[in-house]
Design a protein that fits this description.
This protein has 308 residues and is mainly beta. It has a domain of 108 residues. The chain is built from two helices and 19 strands. A seven-stranded antiparallel β-sheet has the order 4-5-6-10-9-8-7, covered by helices on one side. Strands 18-17-16-15-12-19 form a six-stranded antiparallel β-sheet, with no helix packed on it. It is elongated, with a radius of gyration of 21 Å. The N terminus is likely disordered.
């Protein structure tokens, strides 16, 4: 299947003014998330996992291993195994990347040969500081969880988290994501069938006995986690557009978990769900209210499921 055109963070349906912030306070996604030379199949919301590093002691230094040639490593590329991520093999272009294990730091990994401060390092999974945004997208055959701090980002897989430094630099980010798109599992590199390509989830059947004239078909269900895909969205005390019921404004890809508790409820072509919103940080606060999934044909929320 050929990849679809590279999406951007701005490629979402425009929210209506009554549910989003006024224009002067709305959070617009204007930067391109991914490089055009490294196409993504989709941007897919995903469940928030606790992946990120803390001040845990650094393991004893170990060496990155260059693996024997393989048909899975194209001509001019080399395959590397990092001892702190032994389940994965990295295929790199040595003209762009070189191993740079810093003294006393077994988690350091790759340094870009042409772009200053552009690195890919391993980090230890644990509880995160609060990032600016949380989202996920498909690179290669895998769905990557992203904790985006703008100047750098943590990208996670099961049993592995990578720190992409200088993430704001377009050229650096392009080459970092190209490396991640080529990542193989250790079993794949050693001859096991390659993993099945990850695709967006198939649409769910309509909810029985729920109608909302003029509204879109609900994509969420009770028990889901959700992600905000509108530029910004109000959490409300009740499922209606009463200005007095506005509680908290959350930006697109807000660093929170959103658990769907009950619903849906229809009001004036809006579909609302009762949700619990929890900040993704140590001691993060929790608040309960109502978020609009959609209005008319415009969706503001999407199911969030990593698929691991």
């Amino acid at each position: 299947m050929a990849p679809s055109p590279t999406p951007t963070l701005a490629a979402t349906l425009a929210p209506t003014p009554s549910e989003t912030a006024p224009s002067e306070t709305s959070v617009a996604a204007t930067d391109t998330l991914t490089p055009t030379s490294t196409p993504l199949l989709a941007i897919i919301p995903s469940a928030t996992h606790t992946l990120l590093p803390t001040d845990a002691p650094t393991p004893a230094p170990a060496s990155v291993e260059e693996l024997p040639p393989s048909a899975l490593a194209p001509a001019g590329r080399i395959a590397l195994l990092h001892p702190e991520a032994p389940d994965y093999v990295f295929i790199i272009d040595p003209a762009l990347w070189q191993v740079d294990q810093q003294p006393g730091n077994s988690l350091s990994f790759l340094r870009h040969t042409q772009i200053q401060d552009c690195r890919i390092d391993i980090v230890q999974p644990s509880s995160p500081d609060q990032p600016g945004r949380i989202y996920s997208f498909i690179l290669g055959r895998r769905n990557w969880l992203v904790y985006d701090y703008r100047v750098h980002a943590y990208l996670g897989q099961p049993q592995m988290v990578l720190d992409l430094q200088n993430y704001l630099d377009t050229g650096c980010r392009r080459d970092q994501l190209a490396v991640l798109a080529a990542v193989l599992s250790w079993d794949e590199y050693n001859g096991a069938p390659t993993s099945t390509q990850v695709y967006p989830p198939t649409p769910r059947p309509p909810l029985a006995e729920f109608t909302c004239p003029g509204a879109s078909v609900p994509r969420l269900r009770t028990g889901d986690q959700a992600i905000i895909t509108a530029d910004a969205l109000w959490l409300r005390a009740e499922p209606n557009q009463d200005e007095a019921k506005k509680m908290t404004l959350y930006p697109q890809f807000a660093p929170v978990t959103i658990d769907v508790l009950e619903g849906p409820t229809c009001h004036a072509e809006y579909i609302y769900w009762k949700v619990r919103v929890t900040e993704v940080k140590e001691g993060g606060s929790t608040i309960t209210g109502w978020l609009a999934e959609s209005h008319g044909s415009d969706y503001y929320l999407a199911p969030w499921n990593l698929g691991w």
